[in-house]
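Narrative of accomplishments. A recurring question from our advisory board has been how the design workflow behaves on a single, concrete structure rather than in aggregate. To address it, we present the structure tokens for one chain from the evaluation set, followed by the sequence designed for it. No filtering or post-editing was applied between the two.
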């Protein structure tokens, strides 16, 4: 898992420094990479702690290919609007959310994946659905159900677009761009939570 990732990063770094005329062996770069990880570990743990203490946490998990291994690994992303932390796991089970957010209170904004259930039980965090994931389903349905456009339009109003003066008027920053699914905007940053 982690060693494989280190090897790939070191291989890329070795190529880049070689192109700049700097001789550096992969073994040296690998040692420096692991040493930096050990030195920065308290900072990474503090960032995770600050995120876990937050009233609102956003979470997601992304599969990654693992070189020379069967199966996939996962990068779990946890953020609070100001900080983002990435946690590697060889599993997509609820162990990682439990390790990061177990025993904390607040809101967890995630998709419908059941791996988060372990921290959204009655004594845990309140679960909030992710509007970007919900909106995406309407975008996927648009080809067969033109009436889905109404829901997409409503979501576009929720995903407040940047004002001409550059200030953000809402809780989600949106960049306008065309995507293959026919939707023109995607949320790219969290700005706070609305609670009624």
């Amino acid at each position: 898992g982690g060693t494989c990732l280190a090897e790939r990063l070191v291989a890329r770094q070795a190529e880049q420094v070689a192109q700049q005329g700097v001789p550096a062996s992969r073994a040296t770069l690998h040692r420096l990479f692991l040493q930096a990880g050990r030195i920065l570990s308290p900072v990474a743990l503090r960032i995770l702690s600050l995120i876990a203490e937050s009233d609102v946490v956003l979470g997601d998990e992304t599969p990654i290919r693992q070189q020379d291994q069967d199966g996939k690994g996962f990068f779990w992303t946890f953020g609070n609007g100001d900080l983002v932390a990435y946690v590697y796991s060889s599993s997509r089970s609820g162990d990682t959310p439990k390790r990061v957010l177990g025993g904390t209170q607040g809101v967890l904004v995630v998709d419908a994946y059941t791996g988060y259930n372990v921290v959204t039980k009655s004594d845990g965090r309140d679960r909030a659905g992710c509007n970007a994931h919900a909106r995406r389903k309407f975008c996927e349905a648009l080809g067969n159900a033109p009436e889905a456009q109404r829901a997409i339009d409503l979501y576009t109003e929720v995903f407040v677009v940047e004002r001409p003066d550059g200030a953000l008027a809402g809780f989600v920053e949106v960049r306008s761009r065309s995507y293959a699914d026919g939707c023109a905007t995607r949320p790219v940053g969290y700005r706070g939570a609305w609670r009624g």
